[in-house]
Amino acid sequence: MAGRNKSNKVINSRIENFRHLSPAERLAKALQHANLDDRESQYFNGSDSASDVAALSMALANAMIENVVGKFELPLGIATNFVVNGTDYLIPMAVEEPSVVAAASHMAKIVRGCGGFSMDSDLPIMRAQVQVLGITDLAAAKVRLLAASTELIELANRRDKMLIELGGGCQQIEVQLFESSAVGPMLVLHLLVDVRDAMGANTVNSMAEAVAPLVEELSGGSVRLRILSNLADRRMVRGKVCIAPSALSNEQFDGVEVAQGIVEAGALALIDPYRAATHNKGIMNGIDPIVIATGNDWRAIEAGAHAWAAMSGRYKALSNWEIDAQGFLIGTIEMPMALGIVGGATKTHPTAQASLALMNIQTARQLAEVTVAVGLAQNMAALKALATEGIQKGHMALHAKNIAIAAGAKGSSIEAVTKVMVSEGNINVHRAKELLAVLQRSK
To answer: Does the pLDDT at position 151 exceed 70?
Structure first.
């Protein structure tokens, strides 16, 4: 099955034996399945390419941040098999951890056979905060600010005429009142801004600066902070999968038992913050690599995700797993996701642009929905492993190459040492050094 995306380009994310190909063959195959020109390959080739436009040049890196001395590279993999809202996606993932890309692809294959991921999202509303101190009557100041909401919104929207033309802009204001033991009474004005296809930080920060003088005048206090909030609770993404137990069966495990094991593992994360932290880290294992690959702010995404997980007053899982009346495994997720496809590194980093092209992303909401779908897939993979053979067996088998390299293996020795360690089920640096010594003596 291949899905048609919003630009009517047909993408097929199902690529047989993808993991058995060489890196160059994988890239060629992925570009072919994404209907991209071979010229796009130069943006995935990193420092191995002779082209000046390949990946990130030193000149561009020096323009992006300060005190540049070099570049730091991560492996970029492609997760296959994803179907989100009926559309196929090949998913670029920049990550250093073994098993992440493989696990996402494997779960996507299972979900693919059960109808794919169903996702929806809110409008891209970001929140700016204007903090005001030194107010003698908080309630009266709040009334004055709310009464001037039209004027404040118009003032904010003068900062970004292009955004208004695109249908976005400041939509609403809110006023929060606090009492602080450190600084006394505090009023915080919120600007709720539709940022369209941007992440929105610069936009809402500029709007907060623009309204600050009027806020100060109306409130009778002194404005302090004027900045966005990374808890994007008006920019939520929700997702769902419905899995037949038979899709989870294999030679060792019955699908009904696997589904029940996933539910049991997920239940602990809903009530125990110690488990929830690791549970949510597994979700972010799927999300962060896409955020990084597309040039978005992964720190903002992490901060928002974990703040949302603690909104009830107790830190808990971002996803939920249950068995429905028909015996199907149902997985759901809800979390904030403030991603952009315009501005910042998404526009300046060539590989970020190539990653967006690979997925054929047309809007920021589409990117957010796909990203959260991968997070749900990664979560399902971790829970399935915990419910069956345990997390270490598959993870360490894929980690074995790193162990071999850490022990000093090079070239063909890496594969030879890895193969023996995996067959023995004994994967550690000490054993890798022993095997490496045997190989060296045999030469």
So the answer is: yes
Q: What is the pLDDT of residues 125-135, one digit of tens each?
A: 999 999 999 99
Q: Which position among 190, 316, 384, 395 bears the catalytic label?
A: 395
* Options 40, 97, 216, 257, the catalytic residue: 97
Residue 395 a catalytic site member: yes
Least Cα distance to 215 among 189, 191, 183, 193 occurs for 189
Contact between 247 and 135 (Cβ < 8 Å): no
Q: Is 38 a known active-site residue?
A: no
User: Rounded to two decimals, what is the model's pTM?
Assistant: 0.88
Catalytic annotation, pick one of 279, 297, 306, 384: 297
Q: Are 283 and 376 in contact (CB under 8 A)?
A: yes
pLDDT range class, residue 49, cuts 50, 70, 90: very low
All structural domains of the chain, each given as residue ranges with its CATH number in brackets, are: 3-122+235-389 (3.90.770.10), 125-229 (3.30.70.420), 393-442 (1.10.8)
Query: What pLDDT, on the 0 to 100 scale, is given for residue 359?
Result: 97
- According to the model, what pLDDT value does residue 7 have? 59
272 is a catalytic site residue: no
Helices within 148-254 (DSSP H only) = 149-157, 161-165, 201-219
Contact criterion met (CB below 8 Å) for 33 and 26: no
How many residues are present in the chain? 443
Rg (CA), the chain: 25
**Is 97 annotated in the active site?**
yes
Summarize pLDDT for 224-248 with one digit per residue, the tens: 999 999 999 999 999 999 999 999 9
